[in-house]
Inverse folding.
């Protein structure tokens, strides 16, 4: 099992550019989530999904879109990058009825 | 989801037992208590989860008093590698509200030689 994988590990964008952060899990987990973590801060929930075709907003959804066409994949799209979106992005997955989440290694994004 | 309050930071020394307390005065009947650990530049890692009394695994113990308004994560004989941020989460596993898992600011634990 690879667990939760994220690509890319690092990315630099210019303001206004768009890009997609990839997340995949091979544990057949129903729940997947995207978090961002700014330096010295806790994690903030961006979007989450309770299964294929079902997504919902977290605490800080503005500027981000998600889709969940398969159980395995949960990509996060930045529509028009802004310097305020400079952060480390973590994807996580878990089974139903548990708070035991498995996190990916993170994507460090810098927007200039 | 019940709001949680943890100390911002704690210091200790190698070989000591460390107890981190989390307050959750508004915990609901169906809520469980979960703790995560996060090392720098890594995603959080699940440590332990409990409902009442005491839960122990190979890494830590979780103590929950009868009123469940607080919980204490206990790390026995810490080492330098236990330096990390520890997050306390409280929530219902079995209803739609459980689909959101919100992390607070956590407790930054520093272990010294």
């Amino acid at each position: 099992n690879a667990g939760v994988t994220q690509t890319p590990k690092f990315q630099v964008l210019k303001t206004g550019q768009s890009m997609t952060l990839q997340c995949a899990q091979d544990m057949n987990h129903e729940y997947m989530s995207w978090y961002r973590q700014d330096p010295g801060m806790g994690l903030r929930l961006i979007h989450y999904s309770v299964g294929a075709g079902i997504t919902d907003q977290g605490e800080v959804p503005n500027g981000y879109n998600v889709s969940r066409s398969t159980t395995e994949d949960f990509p996060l799209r930045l529509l028009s990058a802004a310097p305020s979106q400079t952060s480390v992005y973590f994807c996580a997955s878990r089974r139903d009825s548990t708070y035991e989440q498995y996190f990916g290694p993170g994507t460090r994004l810098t927007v200039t | 989801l019940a709001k949680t309050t943890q100390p911002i930071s704690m210091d200790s020394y190698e070989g000591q037992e460390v107890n981190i307390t989390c307050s959750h005065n508004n915990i609901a009947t169906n809520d469980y208590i979960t703790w995560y650990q996060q090392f720098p530049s890594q995603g959080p890692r699940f440590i332990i989860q409990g409902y009442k009394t005491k839960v122990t695994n190979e890494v830590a113990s979780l103590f929950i008093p009868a009123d469940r308004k607080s919980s204490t994560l206990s790390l026995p004989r810490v080492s330098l590698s236990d330096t990390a941020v520890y997050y306390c989460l409280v929530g219902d596993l079995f209803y739609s509200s459980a689909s959101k898992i919100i992390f607070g600011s956590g407790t930054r634990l520093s272990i010294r030689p």
Observations:
- Residues 8 and 107 of chain B are 5 Å apart (CA to CA).
